[in-house]
Amino acid sequence: MSTQAPAPSRREQILKEAARLFAERGFHGVGVDEIGAAVGISGPGLYRHFPGKEAMLAELLVGISGRLLTGGKLRAAEGEGVGRAPAEVLDSLIEGHIDFALDDRPLIILHDRELDRLRDTDRKLVRSLQRQYVELWVEVVRKVYPRLAEAEARACVHAVFGLLNSTPHLGRPGALPGRAATAALLHRLALGAFDGAHGADGAASEPKGPVNRAL
């Protein structure tokens, strides 16, 4: 039986190229014709899939916020379902976010640069999905690091997101370590941030994660 992933749909191809072009040249620096050319169709042909660039941007930003939340919930539920320790669930959440940070860098740039271009309803939906994602992490983090107050845990989660989402600014891809090495480094840095916050009151911070957390 084939294990190959299904080929992306034309709609998915359009979104991928739109994200790349918007990130490289800005939302207003890209025309519908250019997005169409990138996927081999005429600019007007895009209107069979999207009413305009604004709809593409909204689907990209709402879509990734929803996928992060859905993926996080799935990882947490799977971990709890098989009786994994909270530290293992946190490791899984970190791994999932690192995959996003390394594989979807254009979407990070778009969020930072173009979120305010969304309609109020779409922007509020993005913010709502993001808050739920943060609170999912906060709940797990407080199980792993019980000395952290809720507000401290939330601040740590936002800080770790900032660290992981810095991937578009780490330099040219060729100047970085390989993907696996970069992922392992980011994982250690994220855990180090949580460990440091947990021990910030002067008490020794006890390792809570699995022994092989550093690859």
Give the N-terminus to C-terminus distance in angstroms: 32 Å
Helical/strand content category: mainly alpha
Main sheet specs: none
Number of strands: 0
Task: Tell me the helix content.
Answer: 55-70%
User: What count of helical segments does DSSP give?
Assistant: 8
Order of helices and strands: HHHHHHHH
Shape: elongated
Question: What kind of assembly state do the chains in view correspond to?
Answer: single chain
Strand content: under 5%
Radius of gyration: 19 Å
Low-confidence stretches: 201-215
Mean pLDDT: 88
Topology overview:
Layout (H helix, E strand, L loop, with lengths): L9 H16 L6 H8 L13 H29 L4 H18 L1 H10 L5 H25 L5 H15 L14 H20 L17
Helix pairs in contact: 1-2, 1-3, 1-5, 3-4, 3-5, 3-6, 4-6, 4-8, 6-7, 7-8
InterPro entries: Homeodomain-like_sf, HTH-type_TetR-like_transc_reg, HTH_TetR, KstR2_TetR_C
Keywords: DNA-binding
Organism: Streptomyces endocoffeicus
